[in-house]
Amino acid sequence: MHEPANADRLPLMACHECDHLYRLPNLADRSLARCQRCGTILARGMKNSLDKTLAYTLTALVLFMIANTYPILGLKAAGQEQHYTLFSGALVLVQYNLWEVSVTVFLTSILFPLLHILGLLYTLLPLRGARLPRYFIPVFKVALSTLPWSMVGVYMLGVLVSIVKLADLATVVPGLGLYALVGLLLASVAAAASLDPLSIWQLADRLRRER
Known about the structure:
Elements: E1 12-14, E2 21-23, E3 32-34, E4 41-44, H1 49-69, E5 73-77, E6 80-84, H2 86-95, H3 99-128, H4 136-146, H5 152-166, E7 171-174, H6 176-194, H7 197-210
Antiparallel strand pairs: 1-2, 3-4, 5-6, 5-7
Helix pairs in contact: 1-3, 1-6, 2-3, 3-4
């Protein structure tokens, strides 16, 4: 990979494997930029990355609110019925003195996904309107760093396992929150797949220069 002629105008990017520095231009759709030193993929070109990521992230926010408002599961047994939401699931673990597990569930299924969604919206919405938001760099870094810790898929797997195990002990009633959780998982995956951090950094740098 060779640097473009106008490389001095482009922001620096470090390979996350060997820390070699590059100045990458805008990449064509579905193209790749690889590190010359170690071969690691530095960036992928994605068409309309900003618009797609915003659409999926806004969808994820709506579904996140639904998943945290309405019950995920309802259990009917011995004439009694109980409903559980995302947050109440973490509270139940506290009742059994499983503090570490409860905190982990809260962070990975509620806090980190919310920080990721809000961080992306805070940074990408102004960029869509050709404005650079305050504290863009730290907020965007937080949004990117919380993505690996947003484990909605793991929580979803745990819910499915619980449904199978509880089916013989009680009547399991899927709630609206469960369907929203499935949609949240799909929207989050789609947003992550469509996000092109390189183009976002380049757009932010261009807007900073134009101030």
